[in-house]
C-alpha cells in the first residue's frame, strides 16, 4: 500500500521572489509586499535554505533547485505543476496563471527519472489552451491510503481534468464547494486541509454544503474511524494550519512540516493528537507566506522508488547538486 508520508521532496529556492499580481484576484491568502524587492527576495531565499536544512537534519531527502528567473514569482511552490505517484508515474499539470506555466522544468523531470524509477510521465499541460486547469496537489489533496482525491471547486480545479487524473491514477474524485466567511471561494484545496496517516487537519466550516461536509468527514475518518478529523477554525486556516504535510525521516519517524505561524495557531488538544504519531516540525517562512501559500505548497513530494546510486546502498538516495535556471 502506498505511504501517505513521503521521505523525499523537491524544493525551489527563488532568487527573485515576490507575491504574484497575476494570482492575487482569487487568492485571499496573498498579501501585497512592501519595501525593497531585493531585500524581500533575499529573505525568501534564506527561508527556503533554512527550511531545506531543517528537513535534511531529520532525514528527509531534499532535492533543491535554484531559480533566478524574475518572470516566475511563484516558482517557490512546485507542488502545483507536478506530482509523483507509486508505480513510477509523474503528472504535469495545466496552470491557471500564464506567468506560472514556465515553472515546469525539464531538468527536474530528468532528475526524477535519473534518481527514481519513473515509468511514465502524463502531461496535462496542453489543456491550458482550452482554459482547463488543475494545479496539482494544490488543487487536490490526495489520500494515498484510501485513494481519494479531494478538491475544492475553483478556476484552478476543473472537474473535467480532475476526472481524467483520477481515472488514470486510480483515485476516487471527491469535489466540493468551499468558501471563507466573506464568501470568497477557496483557491487551493491544500490551504483547507492536510491528510496525514493517522489524522486530518481541515477547515470543515468552509465546505458550504452540510451533506457534502458530513460525507467528507466520513471518508476522511475511514471505514473504522481510525483517523482523527481535527477541525480547524477560520483563523487557523488563515494562519496556514491546513497547509501542512506529513513526511518520513530517518528510521521511519514521521514529522508534520508546517510553518511556525501555523504551529503557533494549534490548540493544546490538536497538538496532543498530532504528536501521538508525528513530531511537529515548524519552519519559519513568513516572507514566503506573503505569496498566499505556506510549507505544503513549497514541498513537491516524491512517492517514487529510488534507484540505487553510485556510492549509496540500496534504499538510500544521494542529493543532486542544486540546478540553477
Automatic annotation (TrEMBL):
Pfam families: DDAH_eukar. Signal peptide: none annotated. It comes from the Bacteria. This is Arginine deiminase-related protein. It comes from Ornithinimicrobium faecis.
Amino acid at each position: 500500500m502506498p505511504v501517505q508520508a513521503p521521505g523525499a521532496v523537491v524544493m525551489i529556492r527563488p532568487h527573485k521572489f515576490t507575491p504574484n499580481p497575476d494570482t492575487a484576484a482569487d487568492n485571499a491568502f496573498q498579501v501585497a509586499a512592501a519595501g525593497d524587492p531585493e531585500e524581500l527576495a533575499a529573505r525568501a531565499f534564506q527561508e527556503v535554505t533554512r527550511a531545506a536544512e531543517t528537513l535534511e537534519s531529520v532525514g528527509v531527502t531534499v532535492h533543491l533547485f535554484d531559480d533566478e528567473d524574475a518572470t516566475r514569482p511563484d516558482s517557490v511552490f512546485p507542488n502545483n505543476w507536478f506530482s509523483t505517484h507509486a508505480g513510477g508515474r509523474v503528472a504535469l499539470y495545466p496552470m491557471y496563471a500564464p506567468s506560472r506555466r514556465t515553472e515546469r522544468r525539464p531538468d527536474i523531470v530528468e532528475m526524477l527519472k535519473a534518481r527514481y524509477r519513473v515509468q511514465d510521465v502524463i502531461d496535462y499541460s496542453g489543456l491550458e489552451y482550452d482554459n482547463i486547469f488543475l494545479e496539482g496537489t494544490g488543487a487536490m489533496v490526495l489520500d494515498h491510503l484510501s485513494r481519494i482525491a479531494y478538491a475544492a471547486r475553483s478556476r484552478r480545479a476543473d472537474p473535467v481534468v480532475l476526472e481524467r487524473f483520477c481515472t488514470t491514477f486510480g483515485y476516487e474524485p471527491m469535489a466540493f464547494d468551499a468558501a471563507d466567511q466573506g464568501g470568497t471561494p477557496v483557491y487551493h484545496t491544500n490551504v483547507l486541509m492536510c491528510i496525514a496517516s493517522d489524522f486530518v487537519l481541515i477547515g470543515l466550516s468552509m465546505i458550504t454544503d452540510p451533506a457534502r461536509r458530513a460525507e467528507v468527514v466520513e471518508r476522511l475518518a475511514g471505514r473504522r474511524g481510525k483517523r482523527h478529523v481535527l477541525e480547524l477554525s477560520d483563523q487557523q486556516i488563515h494562519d496556514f494550519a491546513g497547509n501542512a504535510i506529513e513526511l518520513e525521516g530517518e528510521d521511519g519517524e514521521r514529522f508534520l512540516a508546517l510553518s511556525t505561524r501555523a504551529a503557533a495557531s494549534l490548540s493544546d488538544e490538536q497538538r496532543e493528537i498530532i504528536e501521538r504519531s508525528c513530531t511537529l516540525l515548524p519552519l519559519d517562512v513568513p516572507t514566503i507566506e506573503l505569496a498566499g501559500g505556506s510549507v505544503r505548497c513549497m514541498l513537491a513530494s516524491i512517492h517514487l522508488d529510488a534507484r540505487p546510486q553510485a556510492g549509496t546502498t540500496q534504499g538510500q538516495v544521494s542529493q543532486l547538486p542544486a540546478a540553477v535556471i
